[in-house]
Prior knowledge:
Low-confidence stretches: 1-5
Number of helices: 5
Number of strands: 6
CATH superfamily: Vaccinia Virus protein VP39
Number of domains: 1
Structural class: alpha/beta
CATH architecture: 3-Layer(aba) Sandwich
Amino acid sequence: MQYDQHNNSLENKGYVAMFERFLEPLALDKPLDILEYGSGPGPVLATLLAQKGHRVRLYDPIYAPQVLREDEQFDVITSTEVIEHIDDVLGVFEMWLAHLRPQGRIALMTQFHPQNDEAFGRWWYVRDPTHIGFFTPRTFDYLASKFGLKMLHIDTKSVVVLQKLE
């Protein structure tokens, strides 16, 4: 499988550093219940979160397909380099919100696409055949509005943090 070819391990210092940067805007200063959605074959982010004292539940349709119990609730849901593979993004957001506690946060990482057709055509991310959806900050503004979320953080490249208001 293509995902098994990635060098996603704790020994890959660049990969670990990417996750450390991803976690910075979350300011996870106390132990929380976290769902790591799309953990992959080597759940590096989950390991880093557990090392910081968080209780982490893995979900990945291929590598950790255990069904979430209806009553499972989380303070944070993380999903890195996953949403671009999902064909029903709205359905996944609905599922996340059903499992997110009030004031809980969703932290996502996906490469934001270039804003013009020529640059988009040259963009490396679009050439991965498993990437079926592409996002911009404006997309996440729409999703926040549609689902009644507050945008807590968005950078110019790839990271967004949304908060459930109820």
